[in-house]
Specification:
The chain has about 80 residues and is mainly β. Helix content is about 15%, strand content about 35%. The relative contact order is 0.17.
Length: about 80
Amino acid sequence: MLAARAAENGWQGVLIYGCVRDVEILDTIDLGIKALASCPLRSNKRGEGQLNVPLRFASVRFAPGSSLYADRNGIVVSLEKLPI
């Protein structure tokens, strides 16, 4: 449901530091998705979340306003938009 909403809102993709499920359905949505793995179990929803805060995972710093570029081989994060 979240992937469908992201696509409807014009998002190009989603980077998930965790697992996804229903990968067959995700393949039908026009949205790039990068995740660590797939898992058949539902997640626990805790109603938590924050916006516009810096975070770090996999030794990469993600600052608000950063641009992320991805393909099937990996990702690149830039503090500025790159001319593509």
